[in-house]
């Protein structure tokens, strides 16, 4: 079997997605399938986060956005929410050094004021510390919802209009995008969802308008570097048209 290193080199010879978003689904089912607690699935899922982030960095991706906790996840049983918050805090403290030595800029999107201090504290500290890093932006979507983000952007636009800073008749997609939580991130090229489910689940609704979707038939704890490479290879086989005809979308031959 080809080594991960060889596969990475092969994937790097073709155009890479600049920004990859991942819906990390299936931690609970992975654990329940083994008669274990759901939280064990989330813990194993944290290991996938580490391995996938390392592989994305080695490949040279510009941005990786991970859906770690949705606006809707607050309604889960209290012990699961508390356990997930503790895992996030642990990840932020344990990965601090690796994030810094690898030039990764840590970012977060979502209703961050809803997070407990246990997470917000190390998150804000690492965001600040890694602000100047140029290697790859790792964004954690936390207390995140695409609809919530769009409502927040609409509110910003309305407030600006009320203050006379924005003419409503001049509001276009480019301006609206600057009000999104992802304003400083590159366009999303590829969205991956694990666990075999084929849903968007309120993830990057605006940003994924022209993204390619890849659905992986493994639970998130089993999604590691080889599976990321499979997903990127599939992306590289796709024909992206952005609403144009096939002939228009293809660059003219030399
Ligand atoms: C979805 O699986 C996963 C989550 C709601 C949480 C994702 C969290 C992690 C991967 C670990 C911590 C994150 C970081 C960044 C260190 P599910 O629980 O909905 O699975 P199920 O659909 O099988 O129940």
Description:
The protein is of the alpha/beta class and 254 residues long. It has one domain: Decaprenyl diphosphate synthase-like (Undecaprenyl pyrophosphate synthetase, 3-Layer(aba) Sandwich). The protein is built from 10 helices and 6 strands. It has helices at 4-12, 27-32, 38-59, 78-94, 96-101, 117-129, 146-162, 173-177, 225-237, 246-249; strands at 19-23, 63-70, 104-109, 136-144, 190-193, 212-215. A 6-stranded parallel β-sheet has the order 3-4-2-1-5-6, sandwiched between helices. Helix 4 runs parallel beside helix 6 (117-129). The longest helix is centred in the first third of the chain and has 22 residues, at 38-59. It is globular. The protein starts with a helix and ends in a 5-residue tail after the last helix. It binds farnesyl diphosphate (FPP). Residues 24-29, 42, 45-46, 49, 66, 68, 73, 84, 87-88, 91, 140, 220 line the site of farnesyl diphosphate (FPP).
List keywords for this structure.
alpha/beta; 44% helix; Undecaprenyl pyrophosphate synthetase; binds farnesyl diphosphate; 254 residues
- Alpha-beta content class: alpha/beta
How does the overall form come out from the CA principal axes?
A: globular
Major sheet: 6 strands, parallel
- Rg: 19 Å
The tally of strands reads: 6
Itemize the secondary structure elements and their pairings.
Elements (H helix, E strand, L loop, with lengths): L3 H9 L6 E5 L3 H6 L5 H22 L3 E8 L7 H17 L1 H6 L2 E6 L7 H13 L6 E9 L1 H17 L10 H5 L12 E4 L18 E4 L9 H13 L8 H4 L5
Parallel strand pairs: 1-2, 1-5, 2-4, 3-4, 5-6
Helix pairs in contact: 1-9, 3-4, 4-6
Bound molecules: farnesyl diphosphate (FPP).
């Amino acid at each position: 079997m080809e080594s991960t290193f060889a596969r990475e080199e092969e994937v790097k010879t073709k155009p890479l997605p600049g920004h990859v978003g991942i819906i990390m689904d299936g931690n609970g089912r992975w654990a329940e399938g083994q008669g274990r607690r759901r939280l064990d699935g989330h813990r194993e899922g944290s290991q996938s986060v580490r391995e996938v982030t390392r592989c994305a960095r080695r490949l040279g991706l510009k941005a990786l956005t991970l859906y770690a906790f949705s606006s809707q996840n607050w309604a889960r049983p209290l012990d699961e929410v508390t356990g997930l918050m503790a895992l996030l805090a642990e990840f932020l403290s344990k990965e601090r050094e690796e994030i810094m030595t690898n030039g990764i800029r840590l970012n977060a999107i979502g209703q961050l004021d809803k997070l407990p201090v246990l997470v917000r504290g190390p998150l804000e500290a690492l965001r600040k510390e890694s602000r100047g890093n140029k290697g790859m932006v790792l964004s954690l979507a936390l207390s995140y919802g695409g609809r919530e983000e769009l409502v927040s952007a609409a509110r910003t636009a309305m407030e600006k209009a009320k203050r006379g800073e924005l003419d409503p008749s001049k509001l276009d997609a480019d301006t609206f995008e600057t009000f999104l939580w992802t304003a400083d991130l590159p366009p999303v090229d590829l969205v991956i969802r694990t666990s075999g489910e084929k849903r968007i689940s309120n993830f990057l609704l605006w940003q994924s308008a022209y993204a390619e979707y890849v659905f992986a038939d493994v639970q998130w704890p089993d999604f590691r570097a080889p599976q990321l490479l499979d997903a990127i290879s599939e992306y590289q086989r796709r024909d992206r048209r952005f609403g144009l005809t096939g002939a228009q979308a293809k660059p003219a031959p030399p």
